[in-house]
Amino acid sequence: MALLPDSATEPDGSATIRVLSYNIRSMRDDTAALARVITACAPDLVLLQEAPRFFRWRKKLARLAAASGQVILTGGGTAAGPAILCGLRATVERTEDILLPLTPGLHRRGFATAVVRFGGARLGVLSCHLSLQRQERYEQGGMLLDRLAGLGTEHAIAGGDLNERPDGPTFRRLAAGLTDCRTAAPWGGEFTSTPAEPHQRIDAIFATKGIEVLGCGVPLDQPGVREADLRAASDHLPVLAALRVPAS
């Protein structure tokens, strides 16, 4: 299988970037394995779900960022779990964490969002972890589309744990308004849950029209990513995408 292209900034201002989306189960598993997986994927942006959000959550997230060659961009406890890390190529314009309406008896959900630049490419970014409850999840899908449009950028991406397969109504709602990167350019593995027995795709990366998807999938054959680390790092497998973002 061909490797995904490396990150690059072109003379015309466009940028090729690597985006990793990963549910890390509050770092309750092997954090050294987790850091090795993230490092081996060489991402420019890391969209996390179930980042630490309780006792000393900032310190835990900072340790993961440092161990994987990233810095904290936004999110964590302030977004009820979603977070965004980034490499030093990113120029940060602004960040905002959003808490979604709370349904009594269900977990609080939120979005971690940012606007960043790579060369002449300006990009809106959103990390999400949608509800386990079908109707609430569908409503959150609409909020995601609204929030992404409200970032005020021509190009944007969203990634996360959707808690739903591609044939579900919320997944279809997102794929109708955005490009499902895995469908556009399949690469690597398809299924993200569970690492021990992958059988369903419930994690995804989406992009707005105009962003070219160069490849997207579970980085099973990415150099440096070991199966043992994928099994030890979390109860989800990560999704890695290479994207070409036009100059803004």
UniProtKB/TrEMBL annotation:
Pfam families: Exo_endo_phos. InterPro entries: Endo/exonu/phosph_ase_sf, Endo/exonuclease/phosphatase, TDP2-like. It comes from the Bacteria. GO terms for molecular function: endonuclease activity. The keyword Translocase does not apply. Residues 20-236 form the Endonuclease/exonuclease/phosphatase domain. Its cofactor is Mg(2+); Mn(2+). Keywords: DNA damage, DNA repair, Endonuclease, Hydrolase, Magnesium, Metal-binding, Nuclease. PANTHER family: TRAF AND TNF RECEPTOR-ASSOCIATED PROTEIN, TYROSYL-DNA PHOSPHODIESTERASE 2. This is Endonuclease/exonuclease/phosphatase family protein. It comes from Streptomyces achromogenes.
